[in-house]
Design a protein that fits this description.
Blueprint: H1 6-13, H2 23-33, E1 41-48, E2 60-64, E3 75-78, H3 81-90, E4 94-96, H4 98-105, E5 113-116, H5 121-124, H6 128-131, H7 149-158, E6 160-164, E7 170-177, H8 182-198, E8 209-216, E9 222-224
């Protein structure tokens, strides 16, 4: 195991072993123990009491964080010509159709979110091998396949994120930046956790939120108390 640096040792020393922190305490502590020379992301990892292999226990959804993610999200709008102006006015970074389909086919994926229309989805099917593994395939359930292109683009730019439980039963999501105030980090965290609670599958038995960890890009993680959610 690699030796910890002096700053890493100091960060670990500030975390009380076996203590479950409130969301507000965790947000304050993460800001205190992050010592990067860039604006690190703040992330949540939530272990759920579900079996993602069963369709009736899959947890997937979207949430608009009240203070955004702090990240400049690059949006590609794959739309027909009649929707191009609408997408551009809403703030899409790239707008078009065939030229971008060709670029994606050639391996280009320099975007964070792709928004498209139902009539275009058929053209994206063959690109599933490129888009799927990168989490870029548009999906009606996350609002990225819609006729209301302007609203979809604006929502994503304002801080709307989608999340999905992975095969180990954990939801990972970025909820802000270390430069945010502790209050804003906590409010974003609460919004995500409240949304997860509302999405609890009826087939899920026992403890639903088993554990919650908050961390920044290069900080140790802080365990939060699920009972404070």
């Amino acid at each position: 195991m690699a030796k910890l640096t002096k700053k890493q040792k100091e960060a670990h020393a500030k975390i009380e072993k076996d203590k479950l922190y409130s969301i507000e305490e965790g947000a304050t502590l993460i800001k205190e123990i992050t010592n990067t020379n860039f604006d690190a992301s703040v992330d949540l990892a939530v272990r759920l009491g579900v079996d993602p292999r069963k369709a009736n226990q899959m947890v997937r959804g979207v949430v608009t964080l009240p203070h955004g993610t702090g990240k400049d999200v690059k949006v590609l709008a794959l739309v027909t010509p009649d929707k191009e102006a609408e997408a551009k006015e809403a703030g899409a970074d790239f707008v078009g159709l065939q030229e971008y389909l060709d670029k994606i086919k050639a391996g280009w994926t320099d975007v964070d979110v792709i928004i498209t229309m139902p009539s275009v989805m058929g053209k994206l099917g063959p690109l599933g091998r490129v888009l799927g593994p990168r989490g870029l395939m548009p999906n009606p359930k996350t609002g990225t396949v819609t006729m209301n292109v302007a609203k979809a683009v604006a929502d994503v730019k304002a801080g709307k994120i989608d999340f999905k439980v992975d095969k180990t039963g954990i939801v990972h999501a970025a909820i802000g930046k270390v430069s945010f105030s502790a209050d804003k980090i906590a409010e974003n965290a609460n919004e995500l956790l409240d949304t997860l609670n509302k999405l609890k599958p009826t087939a899920s038995k026992g403890v639903y939120m088993k554990s919650i960890f908050m961390s920044s890009t290069m900080s140790p993680s802080v365990q939060l108390d699920p009972k404070t959610v």
